[in-house]
Design a protein that fits this description.
- The model is unreliable at about 320-345 and about 345-355 (pLDDT under 50).
- Helix content is about 25%, strand content about 20%.
- The protein is elongated, with a radius of gyration of 31 Å.
- The chain is built from 18 helices and 29 strands.
- The strands form 8 sheets. It has a 7-stranded mixed beta sheet with strand order 14-27-28-29-25-26-15. It has a 7-stranded mixed beta sheet with strand order 23-20-21-22-16-19-24, with no helix packed on it. It has a 4-stranded antiparallel beta sheet with strand order 4-5-6-7, with helices on both faces.
- It has 5 domains: about 5-100 and about 235-295, Rossmann fold (3-Layer(aba) Sandwich), CATH 3.40.50; about 115-235, Alpha-Beta Complex (Glutamyl-tRNA Synthetase, domain 3); about 305-330 and about 345-415, Glutamyl-tRNA Synthetase, domain 2; about 430-545, Ribosomal Protein L25, Chain P, CATH 2.40.240; about 550-650, Ribosomal Protein L25, Chain P, CATH 2.40.240.10.
- The protein is α/β, with parallel strands linked by helices.
- Bound molecules: adenosine-5'-triphosphate and magnesium ion (2 copies).
- Adenosine-5'-triphosphate (ATP) binds near residues 32, 43, 295 and 304.
Length: about 650
């Protein structure tokens, strides 16, 4: 047979390697520790770690922690966990903040090289200088008065920034890129040589790139207490200043990021060139940035801010933002793609409580937590029971190219279903049990059936399923009135039972007088009972060690009725009206056959890469409930209580 195809040496990734075929591939996954990772990040993790691994290289996990206001310990821990859960081992765990001293030194160096200046413009003045017009377009640009300051003056002012001489928004260190470049400088004329023309084209492209309009390198922050460096710093470096330098300091060979950073690539190279950390126009020395397409999943919400609204609830108010905070926010916005960032919709209620605003609508939380299985954060997908291998396979099957990979939650679900089909053991589980007494069997009747965990895979072995006089079947498999199109149990009708020889036929049933629901069925079992047209699943009451296990089962459905919840009205809380009232359906009296104990003891089964290395969570107890769905143990389970989550249905849209 042909050697298995290594997805990290195909297509776009092959091209990236061929551009820079170094012996030691060094990559990094650089999350900002300001939130939980989502399904999109599974792509970034898989690409960075997988590419390095495929070339016997190494990949660092770098916390890009330059934004003290937004960082919390829980995110560091959760991010580390998710990388391991996906089966990857970081070569080193680093922090951008490890390099704060070095970064500061390099900022002074940049000033010395006349490539940075301290600017006091207001956000509006900055925008104006960048040529931003009312209609959002860009007109002519101009450098401000601060641009031409001397090295000495810049140095002194920058040190004042460092030493607390300025409030947020009062001073920013800006890189001296191409803001001051005039169109005359790149206007091609007849007399220009071919070489000069080329140089002018290059200059024109740089001068017209907003990422080159003297973006901020350092700013004074509002809340400057940092998770790791405490109160040492009052100024913090921006993404644009930090990322490329940290890549270089960590000796990263291939710096892989998502396509929205493509327009920032010239700025990435500009700074490294300016500091002699790269050879101009060459990727040979220093890191090489290349961009792959994002993974977008439609049908759910991935934005941190929106998930926060779902988790915490929100207060919609009509009070404009506090001007002071708006100013500082603007300075932060200025750093990255000026127009690209999401607008704040509204503030999660917890944060809002502190400000003085007039609430016009208070919206309660829509989900339990950040790991609510209805969400598509990685913690939520894990809790739901999705195997990490299924996520990696999903990412790679979509392909790694420059194009964004657009997909939908139901496509992900169908991939997970296919992945689980042959990997997890099978058990019988009854969601909503009705007791069936097999009246023609003697009291104490017991057949111990030896049943395979997967009929198509003998390797998985077998377990004992007891069959007795009292069994339970699913309410869905019984009808009070028969119908010729119905092939399961009904008065006078027979149906087969999975894993036993003979069928059963219903002879009578009773209803609970209070609820009007069927509460007991009587039936006959045996070789004389006419055959049924289908086989149903069941569990049997039996001697203690084989008795079925009671469970609470949580069935998850889409959180929103809309297939495109991102297009709902998030600003005014309209999203809340589109919530699916059936997004969580709980069966509190479900029953699972006793084989669950064995599955639980042997979990993770089968062993996923990360799980095999000891990263075991309750959710690694997974099985297929015959004719029902795939399930996993929820973290709310304890010794005395079993809570199961539906991972995915067996078929699309079974409604179960
Ligand atoms: P978001 O804004 O979606 O919450 P982010 O971009 O702020 O995410 P980071 O922590 O900065 O998240 O991301 C770490 C890495 O993951 C970056 O290299 C980023 O490009 C990558 N990444 C983020 N979202 C996606 C996505 N949807 N698909 C692929 N890679 C992604
Ligand atoms: Mg980010
Ligand atoms: Mg982002």
């Amino acid at each position: 047979p042909a050697a298995p195809v290594d997805p990290f040496r195909q297509g776009w990734l092959k091209g990236v390697y061929d551009e820079k075929p170094v012996k030691e591939v060094h990559t990094r996954f650089p999350p900002e520790p300001n939130g939980y990772l989502h399904i999109g990040h599974a792509k970034a993790i898989t690409v960075n770690f997988g590419f390095a691994k495929s070339h016997s290289g190494i990949c660092n996990l770098r916390f890009d922690d330059t934004n003290p206001t937004k960082e919390e310990e829980v995110y560091f821990t959760a991010i580390k966990d998710m990388v391991q859960w996906l089966g990857f081992e970081p070569h080193k765990i680093t922090h951008s903040s490890d390099e704060f001293d070095k970064l500061y030194e390099l900022a002074e160096e940049l000033i010395k090289r006349e490539k940075a200046y301290v600017c006091h413009c207001s956000p509006d003045e900055v925008k104006k200088g960048r040529g931003k017009l009312e209609n959002g377009e860009h007109g002519p640009r101009s450098a401000c008065a601060h641009w031409s300051r001397s090295v000495d003056e810049n140095m002194e002012l920058f040190r004042q920034m460092r030493d607390g001489g300025y409030n947020p928004g009062e001073a920013v260190l800006r890189m001296k890129q191409y803001l001051a470049t005039k169109p005359e400088e790149y206007e091609v004329s007849e007399e220009d040589s071919a070489e000069a023309k080329k140089a002018k084209e290059k200059l024109k492209a740089l001068a017209n790139n907003p990422a080159m309009w003297d973006v901020a390198a350092y700013r004074v922050t509002k809340n400057n207490h940092h998770h790791r460096t405490g109160d040492k710093w009052r100024i913090y470096p921006t993404y644009e200043f930090t990322h490329c330098i940290c890549d270089a300091l960590e000796d990263i060979s291939h710096s892989l990021c998502t396509v929205e950073f493509e327009t920032l690539r010239p700025a990435y190279n500009w700074l490294l060139d300016a500091l002699d950390m790269k050879i101009e126009g060459s990727d040979e020395k220093g890191p090489m940035q290349r961009e792959y397409g994002r993974l977008n999943v439609e049908g759910t919400i991935l934005s941190k801010r929106r998930i926060a609204m779902l988790v915490e609830g929100t207060t919609i108010n009509n009070t404009p933002n506090n001007p002071a905070s708006a100013l500082a926010d603007d300075i932060e916005e200025l750093t990255l793609a000026e127009d690209g960032e999401e607008e704040p919709e509204t503030t999660p209620s917890a944060a809002n409580a502190a400000t003085t605003s007039t609430p016009i609508r208070t919206i309660p939380p829509a989900v339990m937590s950040w790991d609510d299985p209805r969400l598509f954060t990685l913690v939520a997908l894990r809790r739901r029971g999705v195997p990490p291998g299924a996520l990696k396979k999903f990412v790679l099957d979509l392909g790694v190219t420059k194009a964004n990979a657009n997909t939908a939650t139901h496509t992900l679900d169908s991939n997970i279903r296919t992945y689980l089909e042959r990997t997890v053991p099978r058990l019988m589980l009854v969601l909503d049990p009705i007791k069936v007494t097999l009246t023609n069997l003697p009291d104490g009747y017991l057949e111990e059936r030896e049943v395979p965990f997967d009929p198509k895979d003998k390797e998985k072995g077998t377990h004992i399923v007891p069959f007795t006089k009292t069994i339970y079947i699913d309410r869905d498999d019984f009808r009070e009135e028969d119908d010729p199109d119905f092939f399961r149990l009904a008065p006078g009708k027979s149906v087969g039972l999975m894993n036993v020889e003979f069928p059963v036929r219903c002879t009578s049933f009773t209803k609970d007088p209070e609820t009007g629901k069927v509460n007991a069925i009587e039936a006959e079992y045996g070789k004389d009972v006419p055959a049924g047209k289908a086989r149903i699943h069941w569990v049997a009451e039996s001697p203690a060690h084989h008795s079925p296990i009671r469970a609470e089962v949580r069935v998850f459905n889409p959180l929103f009725r809309s297939q495109t919840p991102n297009s709902l009205d998030w600003k005014n809380g309209g999203y809340y009206d589109d919530l699916n009232p059936e997004s969580l359906v709980t069966y509190s009296d479900a029953m699972v056959e006793c084989g669950l104990e064995y599955v639980r003891k042997n979990a993770p089964w089968p062993k996923e890469e990360g799980e095999a290395k000891g990263v075991v969570d309750k959710s690694s107890v997974r099985f297929q409930g015959l004719r029902t769905a795939f399930f996993a143990l929820d973290k709310d389970s304890s010794d005395g209580k079993v809570v199961l989550n539906r991972i995915v249905s067996l078929k699309e849209d079974t409604g179960k």
